[in-house]
Amino acid sequence: MTHFLPDGAPRLDRFLADSYPAFARSRWDAWVRAGKVRVNGEVVLKAGTRIRSGATVETELPDPAPPALHLQPEAIDLPTLFEDSHLWIVDKPAGMVVHPGPGHPSGTVLNALLGRLHAPVIAAGELPEDDEDEVPAPVWPGLVHRLDRYTTGCLAMAKDVGSQQSLQLQFKDRTVEKRYLALVRMSRQLPEVGSVLVDQPIARHRVDRLKMAVNAAGRPSQTRVKLLAKACGLALVECELLTGRTHQIRLHLSHLGAPILGDPLYGGAPGWLDADKRAFPCPHPMLHAWKLSIDHPGDGRRLDFVAPVPEAYREVLAKLGIAVP
Hints:
By secondary structure, the chain is an alpha+beta fold. The chain folds into three domains: 2-59, Structural Genomics Hypothetical 15.5 Kd Protein In mrcA-pckA Intergenic Region, Chain A, CATH 3.10.290; 69-172, Pseudouridine synthase, CATH 3.30.2350.10; 177-320, Pseudouridine synthase (2-Layer Sandwich). It is built from six helices and 19 strands. Strands 6, 7, 9, 10, 11, 14, 15, 18 and 19 form a nine-stranded mixed sheet that branches. It has a four-stranded antiparallel sheet with strand order 1-4-2-3, with no helix packed on it. Strand 16 (271-273) and strand 17 form a beta hairpin. Helix 1 crosses helix 2 (25-33). It is globular and about 70 Å long. The N and C termini lie far apart (48 Å). The relative contact order is 0.12. The model is unreliable at 124-131 (pLDDT under 50).
């Protein structure tokens, strides 16, 4: 959205709130401080900036903040990798949403956690920045990171506030180790030996709000990629997340010319040919949160988790003649 202000404005946030009354002034204040608004082509970080006559203001519309949600506990059984009085580490199945949102008011991983704790809660406040997969503690009880709906594998949750804050700090300090498996289109940019570091900043796509994009003005984002096997024009890769942005692996692999099979949003094919040249469909991204390492919030010991490769993933690898790691 671009606005020309022949008469200027006393405050940037007030002008934006008056122009788009569906968003509170506080929302615009946070949007400006996040570097999402430009005046005369330059990013402005102070919401109270005075706009001079003849200035041009550019911005995308922020995602609206959700209202307070009353979250109900639900008796949902999930594959458990580890559980004690502080933590619940699950192997998230494909198709399950992590927390409630539009179109998914219940039946989520968070509802399952509350069922484990036998406690309904009120979740209030705004969502975290829309380019983050790591979750600020006050937003969703128990959650510290997220997985996309069709991504399977390791998901860590806390059972109390102290444990949630401990895990949150570990994510912030980058001491959490996260490794994923992805089946991608083979690319010359994938390393035959060793690994390659994809160091490309990420921001919300300017036009398609469902996508992220490599953008020099985005947040720093790093993914280390290692080739494990290749066959039939595809490659099985291990991705180590060094930061935690939304769609980071999907976008970074696409940036390497190696989009994930079953991920058309980022250029991945919806199907492929197996070793016998027979076509098979792949309706969802072949991405699995394989390994997770954290420090226990109670006693500090290092915990390492491995989520077994799902059966559907194994079947596709078998079609290609690739051994399951």
